[in-house]
Amino acid sequence: MNKLMYSAPLYFIAFLPAVMILYQLCPQKFRKYVLLLANYAFFYTWSKFFLVYQVITMVITYVSSKIIDHIKNRKTKKLILLLAIVINLGVLVILKYTNFLGENIFAIFHQPFTPIRLIAPIGISYYTLQMISYLMDISSGKIHADHSIVDFAVYASFFPTLIQGPITRFNEIKDSIHAGNPITYQNLKFGSQRILFGLMKKMIIADRLDPAVSKIFTSYTQDGLFSLIGAVLCTIQLYMDFSGIVDICLGSAEIFGIKLPENFRQPFFAENASDFWRRWHITLGTFLRDYVFYPISLAKPTRRLSKFFTKHFGKAAGKFIGPFIALFAVWFLNGLWHGPYWSYIFYGLYYFCFMVLEILLKKPVDDFLKKHQIDNNHTGLRIFRFVKLLIIVIIGELFFRAKTLEVGWTMFSSIFTNFHLSTFKDTLPFLRLDMIDWTIVIVGVVIISLVDFYKEFNGSIRNAIEQKPTWIRWSIIYTCIFALLIFGAYGPGYDIVAMIYAEF
After folding, report:
1. Nearest of 274, 270, 474 to residue 386 by alpha carbon
2. Which DSSP category does 264 fall into?
3. Are 244 and 7 a contacting pair, CB within 8 Å?
């Protein structure tokens, strides 16, 4: 376990303050170098000599982008682009997916496969996508290659985004990197508040649930109630862990005046599965939309296939075939991006199926509501949508967290074949949480839900708090600090819990 993870004391008590002080003391033109030094120090603590790989791929991407930006010949430009993407993506595939591909290929021929010991640097899935987005945006003319390799290196290795995202586009932060503005009181205040909020989600709720979730998914049984509790708890834990760490990352960047894109937007207030993924891991979704869905949808082979289906099967078939092919690619890659396991691929295709159903059923559902004069915003309908979404998400997270697809299916089927409320009393002690733990988790979830509710219907809660009198603002802040100190899962009996999404 690395002690410099975002929720560890070493990060927010020592590392981040040290970087802030050094950054503030340096002349403006040298501040980018402070950030670059901090980035590489942070990366080195996690992946040691793999820092060389990160630097090499950064240099290759930078040089390739300069060539792509200045070359006129379209064929040559595409060739350089393809080569640069293959280098970035190729290393990711080799380090992360070699054993997965080998196992499955050898299995086809019924031959044994000996896994190769390969170690991938931390955060490789995140900064590889950033490099690809940079190359693609330059090739399409959306941006120009940056003249400064230092500025680009800061972007490519920025420590708040290095391990767990968000996946940032260069044009979103280039100006603030160039500027090197001093840390302001406003940025320090808002950034620290965001970090505090993220720490509360991570340490009070997610880390406190970890013993129970780990116990369920390592000692799974065919008890349906046990499996259902596991599915619900791992959904809560994943959201609090991932969104909490992202809050810390966004807050860390905000201190330096660098605004990163939001990665969550109240996902559990979504109307359906499609809307959920427009609110969950937003930067991954927009990456796949811009660089996978649109290119495949607009590709000549796809358009030809659409014409063929229109001619032989009607307009409806021709209309949907192209988007469905692109959507399949998006969700297959979404699952595969999370890791080299069939359970992740199933997870991606699981959402693909729901989104296809939503597209196909949209018109019949709209016609039904219109026919029966049911308001789309009717309270009963909104409750139904909420419950439906919860079921979809919870089942999805069950397969996502399960070690294998077989384990996931066993746990899922047990909910319908072996569900008994009578086992509830026996299940609770097994989960290694006492009543104090459950009370803290429930209260914490309620508070976070209320915050999300306010943000969904009223906008920024930070701005709302900012308008309150000084004594109210500081009362809220001190309450959060004391809640973290008193109820955070740390100290005797608790280990620092790894960031779930750091492994992807």
Report:
1. 270
2. B
3. yes
> What gap in Å lies between CA 245 and CA 51, rounded to an integer?
23
Question: Cα 411 from chain centroid?
Answer: 25
Q: How many residues does the chain have?
A: 504
101: Cα within 13 Å, side-chain hemisphere: 7
CA 436/CA 416 separation, integer angstroms: 31
Round to whole Å and give the CA distance between 457 and 455.
6
- Angle subtended at Cα 315 by Cα 312 and Cα 317, rounded to the nearest 5 degrees: 70
The Cβ of residue 295 has, within 10 Å, a number of other Cβ atoms equal to: 13
CA distance 193 to 199: 10
φ/ψ of 155, rounded to 5, equals: -60, -45
Question: The tokens 């299940």 sit on which residue?
Answer: 427
Going residue by residue through the chain, which has 504 residues, state the pLDDT in tens, using 9 for 90 and above: 556 788 888 898 999 999 999 999 999 989 999 999 999 999 999 888 888 888 999 999 999 999 999 888 888 889 999 999 999 999 888 888 988 888 888 888 888 888 888 777 888 889 899 999 999 999 988 999 888 899 999 999 999 998 887 999 999 988 888 888 999 999 999 999 999 999 999 999 999 999 889 888 887 767 888 889 999 999 999 999 999 999 999 999 999 999 999 999 999 999 999 999 999 999 999 999 999 999 999 889 999 999 888 888 888 888 889 899 999 999 999 999 988 889 999 999 999 999 999 998 988 888 888 888 888 788 888 889 999 999 999 999 999 999 889 999 999 998 998 888 877 776 676 777 888 889 999 999 999 999 999 999 988 888 888 888 889 989 999 999 999 988 887 765 555 666 666 666
Q: What are phi and psi of 280, to 5 degrees?
A: -110, 130
Q: Is 88 helix (H, G, I), strand (E, B) or coil?
A: helix
* CA–CA distance, 470 with 21 (Å, rounded to integer): 27
Distances (CA, A) of 352 to 296, 333, 336, 345, 362: 16, 11, 13, 11, 15
Neighbours of 108 (CB within 10 A): 7
How far apart are the C-alpha atoms of 295 and 268, rounded to whole Å? Answer: 30
Query: What ranges make up the beta strands (E) of 86-152?
Result: none
Number of H helices, E strands in the chain: 24, 0
Q: How far is CA 497 from CA 186, 323, 487, in A?
A: 31, 40, 15
User: Residues 399-431, buried b or exposed e (16+ Cβ, 10 A)?
Assistant: bbbbeebebbeebbebbeeeeeeebeeebeeeb
Nearest Cα to 283, choosing from 167, 136, 187?
167
Q: Which two tokens stand for residue 473?
A: 């603002």
pTM score = 0.92
Return the bridge partners of 280, or none. Answer: 264
Cβ(165)–Cβ(128) below 8 Å: no
